[in-house]
C-alpha cells in the first residue's frame, strides 16, 4: 500500500451506488455517495435504520465489491486491486467490528480474538499472549476460555471489538460497537477507539447514540442512501467526566515493555 501522510485521503468515494434486488423489488441502498475520509479522521455515521450505514461500511471494508461508482483506497482504485491483495488488506490493515459480532461459536474467547494474528504468521503461543493482553484491556481476562454462548451480549460485543483491534489495523470500521452496552462498558470501548485515533488511526463508527459522536472529529448523517449532513462536533465528550476512567492503553503498553 502507498505511503500516506496525515492529510492524504485514505478513502475516496465518487458517485457510489449500491442496489439490492431487481425490478419492483429493487432497493437503492446507497444513492450516489461522494465522500472523502482523510488518514487519522474519526468519523461517526448516524442515521435511521435502513438508511445504508452497514452497506457503506461493508463496501469501505472491502467486503462487498458489487457497486457502481469509484472507490479509491489509499489513492488506488479498488477495482484495480486483485482479490488476493484485497484479502491481505482486509486482514492486515482493516479491523471490522460487525453489527452482529460474527464470533466463531466453536472457538473460545481467546481463540476468537487471536484469529486475525494467524494471517500475520505469528506463532500460536505468541498469538494467545497478545490476545490475552488485549482482552485485559476490555476487562475480559477472566472469560478467556469461555465459549461465546457462555457470554452476555455486552461481553460478546467487547470480544468482537478486541478481535478487530488485536492486529493493530490502521483503519477501524465499527458498526454500532456500543449498541448493547451500558455507559461504563461503552466508555471502555470509546476510550480505546479514542486512543487509536490519537495514535493516527482512521476510525469510522456507526452509532445511534449522539453522545458518542463527541469522541469523533467528524459526524456524518445519512438519509435514504445519501449523505444528509457532514459536520465537526464541538462539544466535549460527556462520558469522559465519569469517575474511574480505565487507563486501558497505558496499561497495555507498560505490560508490553516488560516482555
Ligand atoms: N443483502 C441484502 N439484500 C437486500 N436488501 C438489503 C440487503 N442488505 C441490505 N439491504 C437493504 O438495504 C438498505 C440499507 O441497509 P443497511 O443494512 O445498510 O441499513 P443500516 O443503515 O445499517 O440500518 P440499521 O441501522 O438497522 O443497521 C435497507 O433497506 C435494507 O433492507
Ligand atoms: Mg446496520
Report on this model:
Helices cover 32% and strands 24% of the residues. With 259 residues, the protein is α/β, with parallel strands linked by helices. It has one domain: 3-Layer(aba) Sandwich (Rossmann fold), CATH 3.40.50. It has a six-stranded mixed sheet, with helices on both faces. Strands 2-1-4-5 form a four-stranded antiparallel sheet, with helices on one face. Helix 3 crosses helix 4 (124-137). It starts with 8 loop residues before the first strand and ends with a helix. Residues 237-259 have low confidence and may be disordered.
Which terms would index this structure?
10 strands, alpha/beta, binds magnesium ion, 259 residues, Rossmann fold, 4-stranded antiparallel β-sheet
Compose a concise summary of this entry.
It is built from seven helices and ten strands.
Low confidence ranges: 237-259
Largest sheet: 6 strands, mixed
Order of helices and strands: EEEHEEHEHHHEHEEEH
Name the CATH superfamily classification. Answer: P-loop containing nucleotide triphosphate hydrolases
Global shape? globular
